[in-house]
Amino acid sequence: EEVIIMRKCIITIDDSGFHVDLNGNAKGDITYLTINSFVKSELHFLNEYPNLNAISLTGKFSSLQPLSQLTGIETVFLNVSNQLDISPLYDWRIKNLEICFALGMTVDKIEPLLTEYIECLQLGYTRKITDLSFVTKAVNLQRLRLYELPCVTQLPELYKLQRLYALKVEYMHKVRNIDGLINSSIKYMNLTLFADKLSGTKISKIIQEMKFLKQLNINLIDRNSSIRYDVISNQLHKNGHIDVLNDTMNFDRWMELLM
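Given the sequence above, the corresponding structure tokens read:
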């Protein structure tokens, strides 16, 4: 099996200037470029890095149009603090996508990125997303992480994603409907729920209807969390499903693995 070596470069742009850390590599050898911009910046220098397959953008940028000259990008992290046209990314065959704290990042902007090439998707820290049904557009999605989406009240119909095997849901304060987990292909799941929106009985019933589930780490955050957890544990034990509970599961490992 081929071992892929990521040659990283970090560019920091601030009031004091433009700072490049090549980590001892030549620009032409860089495959992973991280740009942290604390002032609104241009990206005209991207053509100096012709062999990129991963890019991370954090901060303020005048335009993302220079990204259109890049080919071969498979991994993208977006954390932009000003509203931008992201259409230059639409022609990329992105496999790994994370969008967080991205100002103005509405569903209509994100959805065109969810092609058949997406394998790992992470969405977090945005109030613009209220309905997650668009996630099922990524038909070959394998790993999904959802975190700090305060306006989302229910999980999408994840049974539609037949290759999805790892799910992580964190601090979704208003989620009260997790029926979308039923009959999904998920094998490894990490849930952090504000369980006052869901009864222990309801949660345990849904878990038992996930026929492919192998390991589950569940954290309930509310004043009655221990009582609710006991209900879940007792119900799973009663019906022969207690083996799925594993509070020491290394979920990040499953997020990194391919099927």
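The first strand starts at residue 8 and ends at 14. Try to locate this feature in the token string yourself.
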